Amino acid sequence: MRIQRTTLQLMVIVGLVVLGWGAQTAVAAKPCDVPVTASFRDDGADSVRSDGGEYIDGRDRVNSDIACDGDYYFLSGTRTLVFDLALISSSPVNAGGNFAVEVGLDGGLLGMSNDQPVQTTKVQFNFVVGPTRYFLAFWQDRYPDTHDINVTRLDNNTWVVEAPSTATAKLLSCSAKGKCNQVEVGNTAAPFKLTLVRQ
């Protein structure tokens, strides 16, 4: 099921970032949508982890699909993600919402060649903690002191999105209610590894 890009909760975008989303909604799946299972590495050193296990399309109200345009869309349903960022809190925090993975290739993820890494240009998590909305951005075009990350297609059914520990992201914030006037919180390493497997 493809998610309309209208959220204020959580997103990851690889290839294109859109800021200032509104209410989170979902639209009916199309016949060409491909359901996938999403799994985070969940290493203790990772800054983005699961709330305990893989995210399966159609279970726990999770939507996890590669859409007809080849981009990946995720809606957490009753699940959350865990963010472990010292700039926000001394302990990990949970946040729900959605994220997307987009690559700048014809056919998107489905158009990638096997075992050929793709250097991405933009990645952003957008999530809410209490009264504050946070943006964790790997977006070198806009923020030259951040890094891009890679997407790799391992085989016909498996993709890996990974930010190494050496990759720098920029954390920004604004009020979760009303107009979002972003302010910079700081730069941080934010390693994570996400594996997508066709169901």
Commentary on this structure:
This protein has one domain (about 35-199). A hairpin with a 5-residue loop joins strand 4 and strand 5. With about 200 residues, it is mainly beta. The protein is built from no helices and 16 strands. About 0% of the residues lie in helices and about 40% in strands. Strands 1, 3, 4, 5, 8, 9, 12, 13 and 16 form a nine-stranded antiparallel β-sheet that branches. The two termini are about 15 Å apart. The protein is globular, with a radius of gyration of 15 Å. The relative contact order is 0.22.
**Number of domains as seen in the coordinates:** 1
**Silhouette:** globular
What separation lies between the terminal Cα atoms? 13 Å
Radius of gyration of CA atoms, rounded to a whole number = 15 Å
- Arithmetic mean pLDDT: 83
User: Total strand count, please?
Assistant: 16
Number of helices: 0
Q: How much helical structure, as a percent, in the residues? A: under 10%
Strand content: 35-45%
The assigned structural class equals: mainly beta
**Largest beta-sheet characterization:** 9 strands, antiparallel
SSE succession: EEEEEEEEEEEEEEEE
Uncertain segments: 1-25
